[in-house]
Amino acid sequence: PPVYPQPVSPAEALNSAVLCNTRSNMLFSARLCVAAVCYGIHKGGSLPLQQQQQYVPSSLFKKLLYLIPRLLPESRRTSADPEEEGPCRLWSSVTDENHTWRKTALHLWRHAALQQLKQIPQYQLCFSEWLDKELRVRRSEDILSDSERQEHQQWVCLELYLTLPEEQGGCGGDMRRLCSHLLNAVLDQHLSLNLEQTGADTCSPDILSRLQEFVYEMEVTSLPGGRGHSSDLCDFLFETLSQRCSYSRTSASVGISTELSLHTWNRVLLALPAVLLFKVKAEGGKTTLDCSKLIEHVNEHQRNVCFPASVLPCCITGHFLKGLLCASVRCGRPAEEVNRCWSQMSGCCPLLVVSAAHWWQQLSSPLFSLWGRLRDGEPPPEQLQLLTDGQRWACR
Question: By the 8 A CB rule, do 295 and 345 touch?
């Protein structure tokens, strides 16, 4: 539990001591929170709603909102009407030896008093708070299996928080907002871990998988010019990084913070569709690629974390080139579009061109194979073939 610089209330101290990160901790916390909330409703049941809040700690109530749907899948189904039984009956279910804690929890979950408290802002568990709790779970000690955790997270994201109004802690039906929460949560967690803990046993891989699913869904179902179109997603990704780097610049250790942000960003970037890094523009009956955002990103951010010096990492270079090839097939003349973009990068983004030349021996085979699959055996674009010719000349 954290050490507070000043005294805190007993409820807050109890909340910080009660963890939800392992199977045993979740079961203990669920029992405690069910008993505490039932007792609070029992004690304040005859009082006005405002006064009831004195008996039900919001921190334990929020923990209950996190735990019950996670531990009891049947609670995820929306009941027709909340149960109107009195608070005395609710408390008796806690003390009755014939009632299991699961039965009592479901009874509480459907009780009218709990539903009323959920309408009060301080008792609402917003999406960012849910993500924070979920990312603290130790995967190896989770009460849920991998498939159960996937099912639960998809339900929480798509059925609970996506449609929930923003003022109630949800995303207001905006899938991009939901993805923004997921992306920032993953980045925040990576930054909060020590460098030696980068592979720590957390649910970060699961949340990253959910982000992949929803980004792919937006990409596949997007309509030209509509919200969620690939151009919109491209802006979303680069705007998110730009905002995070601007936050880093305000910190005391600017260089270290920015470098950590970019290394973390690169790990996430490699898990997302490379095609999203390029905008596809339709003007005057012609479809072209806009790589200005990528060029700006490399020149402003990636150049600051190059290792070895003056060269982008091989995986990042390959991801950018993969995105270029995949995005080009949406244009009328893909090879010409690749050549045009590469010529533009030669003048405006020499770091990417130099990096491609540096790593070309490793990158050429998978990229040419990708191009062959995309274009049914068509020869590679001239500008990329020049990289191969240059490498052969240098190795003579």
Answer: yes
DSSP state for residue 289 in the 8-state scheme: E
- State the Cα angle at 189 between 181 and 172, rounded to 5°: 10
User: What is the spatial distance between Cα 317 and Cα 89, in angstroms, rounded to a whole number?
Assistant: 64
Per-residue pLDDT at 137 exceeds 80: yes
Strand partners for 111: 83
> Residue holding tokens 């179902």?
221
Residues across the chain = 396
Structure tokens at 45: 């049941």
**Share above pLDDT 70 across residues of the chain, in percent, rounded to a whole number:** 88
Cα–Cα distance measured from residue 385 to residue 320, given in angstroms and rounded to the nearest whole number:
17
Cβ–Cβ < 8 Å for 210, 157:
yes
Single-letter amino acid, residue 124: Q
Lowest-confidence region among 136-140, 234-238, 371-375: 234-238
Tell me how far apart the alpha carbons of residues 277 and 273 are, in angstroms, rounded to a whole number: 8
Q: What is the pTM of this model?
A: 0.87
Residue 182: exposed, middle, or buried by beta-carbon count in 10 A (0-12, 13-18, 19+)?
buried
CB contact at 8 A, 311 and 354:
yes
Tell which residue, 188, 242, 178, 241, has the closest CA to residue 213. Answer: 178
Closest CA to 215 of 269, 139, 290, 146: 269
- Phi, psi of 390, rounded to the nearest 5 degrees: -65, -40
Number of Cβ within a 10 Å radius of residue 337? 23
Cβ-contact 287, 334 below 8 angstroms: no
Return the structure tokens found at 69: 């749907």
Q: Which amino acid is at 352?
A: L
Radius of gyration for the chain, computed over Cα atoms and rounded to the nearest angstrom: 26
CB 138 within 8 A of CB 202: yes
Neighbouring CB atoms inside 10 A of 244's CB total 21
C-beta of residue 147 within 8 angstroms of C-beta of residue 80? no
Q: Rounded to 5 degrees, what are φ and ψ at 110?
A: -100, 5
